């Protein structure tokens, strides 16, 4: 569409400002985390790794980090195969009930997370899963499933299903033809789905606030509790690290899916 | 085929449907059937005020997101491919950054000794620090920041599908760029507007972290009623009833929207 010059300049200026609003708050944490000052100041008076040392040297933060990483990895390991299987079933089946199942599987995105969190807390309290690793992983698998399903379903949509039929007509069984023919072609969308499930588990806060406790508290729960009391610059260091991990993973997920699917 | 979807379905049934069902049951059953929890929501002032405030904030955040998100999505849809990728990357990266980290960033920016107050004081615009956070203002700024991508992505997806020939046809019939935008582009982008607005509105209704951390105890949104009833007062029935009311509101909104556009189009954006 052709736009007259003043409109164009106005659009560019507005966009630049809005994009700045989106990205600047995330970037501003990094310089603060390298500050030597006790209080958050910008620009930092002098640079140091003080808050990173504080983080690494603190057993409670380290334990929380271990919990977060364990939960995130286990979530990916469990949610990815479950999600791939479900997405495959949805794409293959022409049953009407599959549409209903598809919508049900996306429920975690629809139900306000605070409601899910409190509901899970009630159930876990009944069966003794509060403050356990198992409970934390189960909840995160549930929250991560929709990301895997959406990503893989999109991958399967652009995949030509007749290829698998050809493989089957040549004598491969269904399972083998899936792993040999289909999976390699939707690989990028599977990896992307897994990465999003990982980020979702790493960032998850609200459910953890209710159901985690004792030695099984993830980073986000400890950060949230610390933030309620005072603004500890150690959190700037942890936030910077978490953001760096997210950025890298998103870049991997999106660049791969462009090449693959 | 059903068997393949079963494990995932089981997870969702056990960890979403069952807990929410239990919540609903608990809201009306406590040593016998009772509507006391709902009566309290109806009669007590604090509940009314919280519901009203939450809906006000949701309307405000949705309108602001539309105002800021539309130009971004529009620019991404008309810009050369390379620039479109840059714009979308700048939208998607915050989208996948922890909500908690972003709330913390806004706390650091907006507090009394925060970056914005420091800068404004250094350049002499203000003498006393402005109260930018621990109120509704701070909550809205941070909530908008977190939900803006949910507006931009559906808008962009819709705008990208608008055939460019239509605008050329309009131009060849003598309409200027302004007229083609208002009469052709804007109406065709409305499904995206509806999808994005629905997502932002519904997500704001259930928002918890930003009002809790940036609201300063004064901006009590619905989700905070739920959590306080559980954590502080041990009132599971009351918490459940508030949760059910919130869920019904969300359900009704999705149902109303699904009459106009298919729901998977609203949800498929993530």
From TrEMBL, chain A:
<feature type="transmembrane region" description="Helical">
    <location>
        <begin position="234"/>
        <end position="253"/>
    </location>
</feature>
<comment type="similarity">
    <text>Belongs to the binding-protein-dependent transport system permease family.</text>
</comment>
<dbReference type="InterPro" id="IPR000515">
    <property type="entry name" value="MetI-like"/>
</dbReference>
<protein>
    <submittedName>
        <fullName>ABC transporter permease</fullName>
    </submittedName>
</protein>
<feature type="domain" description="ABC transmembrane type-1">
    <location>
        <begin position="65"/>
        <end position="253"/>
    </location>
</feature>
<keyword id="KW-0997">Cell inner membrane</keyword>
<feature type="transmembrane region" description="Helical">
    <location>
        <begin position="136"/>
        <end position="156"/>
    </location>
</feature>
<feature type="transmembrane region" description="Helical">
    <location>
        <begin position="100"/>
        <end position="124"/>
    </location>
</feature>
<dbReference type="GO" id="GO:0005886">
    <property type="term" value="C:plasma membrane"/>
</dbReference>
<keyword id="KW-0813">Transport</keyword>
<keyword id="KW-1133">Transmembrane helix</keyword>
<dbReference type="InterPro" id="IPR035906">
    <property type="entry name" value="MetI-like_sf"/>
</dbReference>
<keyword id="KW-1003">Cell membrane</keyword>
<feature type="transmembrane region" description="Helical">
    <location>
        <begin position="60"/>
        <end position="88"/>
    </location>
</feature>
<keyword id="KW-0812">Transmembrane</keyword>
<dbReference type="Pfam" id="PF00528">
    <property type="entry name" value="BPD_transp_1"/>
</dbReference>
<feature type="transmembrane region" description="Helical">
    <location>
        <begin position="177"/>
        <end position="199"/>
    </location>
</feature>
<dbReference type="GO" id="GO:0055085">
    <property type="term" value="P:transmembrane transport"/>
</dbReference>
<keyword id="KW-0472">Membrane</keyword>
């Amino acid at each position: 569409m052709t736009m007259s010059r003043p409109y164009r300049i106005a659009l560019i200026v507005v966009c630049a400002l809005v994009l700045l609003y989106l990205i600047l708050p995330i970037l501003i944490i990094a310089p603060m985390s390298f500050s030597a000052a006790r209080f958050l100041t910008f620009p930092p008076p002098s640079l140091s790794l003080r808050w990173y040392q504080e983080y690494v040297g603190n057993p409670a933060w380290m334990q929380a980090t271990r919990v977060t990483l364990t939960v995130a990895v286990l979530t990916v390991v469990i949610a990815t195969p479950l999600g791939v299987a479900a997405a495959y079933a949805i794409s293959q089946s022409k049953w009407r009930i599959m549409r209903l199942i598809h919508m049900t599987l996306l429920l975690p995105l629809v139900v306000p997370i605070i409601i899910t969190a409190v509901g899970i807390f009630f159930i876990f309290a009944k069966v003794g899963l509060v403050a356990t690793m198992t409970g934390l992983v189960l909840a995160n698998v549930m929250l991560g499933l929709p990301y895997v399903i959406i990503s893989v379903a999109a991958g399967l949509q652009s995949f030509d299903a007749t290829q698998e039929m050809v493989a089957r007509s040549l004598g491969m069984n269904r399972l083998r033809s899936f792993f040999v023919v289909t999976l390699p072609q939707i690989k990028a969308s599977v990896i992307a789905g897994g990465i999003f499930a990982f980020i979702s588990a790493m960032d998850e806060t609200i459910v953890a606030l209710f159901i985690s406790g004792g030695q099984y508290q993830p980073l986000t729960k400890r950060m949230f509790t610390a933030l309620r009391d005072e603004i500890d610059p150690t959190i700037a260091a942890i936030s910077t690290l978490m953001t760096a991990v997210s950025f890298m993973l998103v870049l991997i997920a999106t660049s791969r899916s462009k090449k693959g699917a | 085929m059903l068997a393949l979807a079963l494990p995932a379905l089981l997870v969702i049934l056990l960890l979403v449907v069952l807990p929410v069902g239990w919540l609903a049951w608990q809201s009306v059953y406590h040593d016998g059937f009772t509507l006391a929890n709902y009566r309290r929501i109806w009669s007590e002032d604090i509940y009314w005020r919280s519901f009203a405030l939450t809906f006000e904030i949701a309307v405000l955040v949705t309108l602001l997101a539309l105002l800021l998100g539309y130009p971004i999505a529009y620019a991404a849809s008309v810009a050369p491919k390379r620039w479109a990728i840059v714009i979308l990357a700048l939208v998607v990266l915050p989208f996948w950054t922890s909500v908690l980290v972003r709330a913390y960033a806004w706390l650091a920016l907006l507090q009394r000794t925060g970056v914005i107050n420091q800068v404004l004081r250094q350049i002499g615009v203000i003498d006393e620090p402005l109260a930018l956070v621990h109120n509704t203002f701070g909550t809205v700024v941070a909530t908008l920041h977190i939900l803006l991508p949910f507006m931009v992505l559906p808008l962009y997806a819709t705008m990208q599908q608008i055939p460019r020939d239509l605008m050329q046809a309009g131009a060849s019939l003598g309409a200027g760029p302004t007229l083609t935008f208002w009469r052709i582009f804007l109406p065709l982008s409305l499904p995206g507007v509806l999808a994005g607005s629905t997502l932002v509105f519904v997500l704001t209704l259930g928002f918890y972290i930003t009002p809790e951390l940036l609201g300063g105890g004064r901006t009590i949104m619905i989700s905070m009623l739920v959590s306080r009833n559980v954590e502080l007062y041990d009132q599971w029935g009351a918490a459940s009833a508030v949760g059910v009311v919130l869920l019904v509101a969300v359900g009704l909104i999705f149902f109303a929207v699904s009459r106009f556009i298919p729901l998977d189009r609203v949800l498929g954006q993530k």
